[in-house]
């Protein structure tokens, strides 16, 4: 005869794993991610926005000319594996953004908007 403890243990074992929490998503962590939609990829956490439950992940190497950024709701993560801890991805000394190019694009967009 099964006891209440045995039934509770069996129910807990059959239950799906809890969704990832914000404590699981430390900036700089490198993860292997599987989504509920079937995507599998490796990426580094850039930031996690707790109110919206959105992760910003950078795929590819920092040396790539244009790293791919993913904005992913954490509840779409089916499972993940911690692969390691990288350097701070937002280190301003190693920032991959070309501020001059961004400002030039902004000025061009403003000029184009004024001409319309």
From TrEMBL:
All copies of domain LSM12 LSM, residue ranges: 22-79
InterPro entries reported in the protein's UniProt record: Lsm12-like (IPR039683), LSM12_LSM (IPR048478)
Biased composition (Low complexity): 1-14
Pfam families: LSM12_LSM
Lineage: superkingdom: Eukaryota
UniProt region (Disordered), positions on chain: 1-22
Protein name: LSM12 LSM domain-containing protein
Organism listed in the record: Stephania yunnanensis
């Amino acid at each position: 005869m099964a006891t209440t403890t045995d039934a509770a243990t069996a129910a807990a074992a059959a239950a799906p794993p809890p969704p990832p929490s914000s404590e699981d998503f430390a900036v700089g962590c490198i993860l292997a991610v599987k989504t509920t939609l079937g995507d599998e990829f490796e990426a580094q956490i850039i930031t996690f926005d707790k109110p919206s439950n959105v992760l910003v992940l950078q795929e590819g190497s920092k040396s790539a000319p244009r790293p791919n950024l993913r904005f992913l709701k954490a509840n779409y993560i089916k499972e993940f594996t911690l692969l390691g801890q990288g350097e701070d991805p937002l280190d301003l000394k190693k920032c991959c953004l070309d501020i001059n190019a961004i400002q030039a694009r902004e000025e061009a967009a403003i000029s184009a908007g004024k001409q319309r």
